């Protein structure tokens, strides 16, 4: 058509009529020209959603052009034109039309096609309800199955009813119609929707189509199957409440339907007419849910009668109208419903009443028959709030779940029974209520094990309360107990028990006295249980006799022992006769016999004495107790049987023993099943007794020693309190300090002197220090270190102390102030370590003496701050140095200069030498010779040293740091580094270390100990060279300029050949060059210029070295070493510039002797 519109048709119309032209261009134009659809229906179909159009494509085509016959106005008419024979089934594309048998005419087909389009038109018309239901109904009945006239009429009738969110009529109609041959219980909801729809005004048409016999049969079948399902669930114990409510709702719908109810079977109609009200049914189901499916209660509360009654009631009222429910079940349900109807509010009391009703309905015992149960239930609604709460709490506690321990579970049951009993006897005044509820208590008590209630009473109540509880039980159940005398009941419910308690009541004071004694003798408690249980025959007579004898001996001395004998009673009265005879014999004994029997008793069971006064039956202190004299608690062990038999034989063989006492002793021996030797004693028993008492004597001595140590420990913890206690006990006391001094060893006691009540002074010899060590530690000529201690034995304050040398000048008569910081390095180190160890605990004098003595021995080998021993592997150090720990170095740097470096006051030339070498190194401009120097500029180093005064002026200065700062602010930093960077001890040679035959004006210094690292390496080389104690060494000399000494002191002699630090040529190759003659080395030493106020200006330096073995001779008098560890600088000789070096034979012997003395520790 588009091409025809774009082209001029006149050229193509030449010689053709219009019909011929259309035939050539549009062959089907006549079909489209004949198309005469229903415009209104066509517009309705055009508004359908695309997805619906796709589904309904073949249905919509029926209103389109006639492409079937080509001659009709619509395809629907064309299909009718082609229908010629009597066909039962007509198909078009996906559509399948089923005509009624016997009416296969064109008119029937025309009606079917017209109904189809009308049904589609009605199903597609917009409504205010759900849209999917009508469309689904239409497609399910037309597209997915053969199209029938009944189905189309159903669709048309249903289309008059709109779906709502609550009622889905179209879906329900679809489900019912498609399952019309097999409607069952599973279609209950759809049936309910359909039945409701039939009652609508718009449902008249639907009634005509749907209200068929098959629908009524389906309703009846649904009711029957639902009843069967509910019964099956009830019998299987499955959840059924939701089913019965759903069924009840359906039955109510059927019952209210005017169109369906009249058509159903008469029996079903009669059942529906007898349905209970919805309120009653909901109440019954609420009760059923509250009862629960699982029981977590004790067996006595495990009955399911209420649940079973409700199930039977529901079957009778909703499933079958037959006498399946018994009268008692009907009454029980009625009583429960009555309780629920009177407790509709949410108040706690009403919830408690409902719970109480459920618990009572669970009671499983013939004692609480149906009538008694109903009586209890009927009284619940009138129970006061407090009574309801008490009843419920007791029954709840009876059913409390155990925590895995059976004893706890039983205790809760017994406690609940006792509480229930008290409520009935004292808490309820209405006799009718008591009469009703006492049977509940009886059932609870009867269900308990025979003796558990009795055991509970023993463990939780006193004797007077025991008796009252039994009286209350008898008062509550006297008539029941008498009628059930022959039945096996718990002890408290037996008539025999009540008669026995009546007999015991007259002995109540005696029983209470026994009870008071049982606090210290638990066996009496067990005996009381036996007495309380009673018995029959002679056993009872013995018990009465025992109680009578005890009653006659009240407040007599013998009463306590008689009570303890009663505690030996065994269950079932096996030894009642022996106990009764023993009690009677004790009653007749004298004071001497009582004393012997008490000794036997104590020997059998031991003695446990406490400071607790005994009380009589009224709770008052026993007359024998005394508050004026304190009693120390003690305990003894039982005596062996053989020894006890010997003891009894000794009492019986006493010629002065009277007959009554003899009877008592023998009765007590029989009670203990002991052998009686009243004539002779077997020798072997005598021997064992002798050994026992010998061991006991030794134990007493050991105990005395233990008590002595205990006294010391108490005194150390609380001296004042211990002193008061000892005075009260009349025990002599000495001061803790005197006691400790008395126990000192002879060696320690000679060094300890008591100066005051808590003050002592200890003296420690310093004679073991060599002259070098004294110089390094700064102790001078001191012979002893004095440590004064103030010991606080109450530990209120830490131990105070101070240290002094015996050469210190002070006023010993003035008040002594503890913890005065000492001025010397050694004393300060000892003080720091003592302060750290005494800060928290007061040590023993012996231990403290050994600690300080060892510390003095290890002083030169220890860190100058923390006291930790340097890992020097046996090398000898002459002064304390700080260890490598940062904290120690920091603390060391904070100490005064003269403490760290006593040589600033006592050996100024040694300091001058070190400063001179630093000055020489800075003057040559090579700062690498001063590694680690804090002043990095060589000119500044010279300037600082040139500002210093003569070192001799520093000796009297009190504050060296402040004094040095007045010359230059960095003076202290530079001096501290110079004196510490090599970590050794360089001092002026004196005594045997001073070498004779040196030129006048020569200063000689000894490196007593290099740094620990250098000393360890040299010592290792020396020990590996020879296995002998005093290995071979050689004295050699090394000449160099003074600027090299700082590096040599810090790192030792090193091989610098071929480096920037090489001073002279290496004729014999690389290595450390040494000479046998001082003069040879002297030629390599240049005259040095020192700082302004130095005393060593213009000097030349030669080093005296100790070499392992014979050295390494490479030429006459010349040695070259390649291992720095084999050479150690020991001497530094400073010769005047004009002096001549001495020959080796004048100095080497003395140097070798001095070096040997250094190695062996002689200096």
Automatic annotation (TrEMBL):
The Swiss-Prot or TrEMBL record annotates one GO molecular function as: nucleotidyltransferase activity
Q: Give start and end of each PARP catalytic domain.
A: 1030-1118
| SUPFAM superfamilies for the chain | ADP-ribosylation
Q: From which domain of life does this come?
A: Eukaryota
Region (Disordered) spans which residues? Answer: 610-632
Protein keywords: Glycosyltransferase, NAD, Nucleotidyltransferase, Transferase
Pfam families referenced in this protein's UniProt entry, alphabetically: PARP
State the protein's name: PARP catalytic domain-containing protein
Which species does the entry assign this protein to?
Answer: Byssothecium circinans
Q: What is the lineage of its organism?
A: Eukaryota, Fungi, Dikarya, Ascomycota, Pezizomycotina
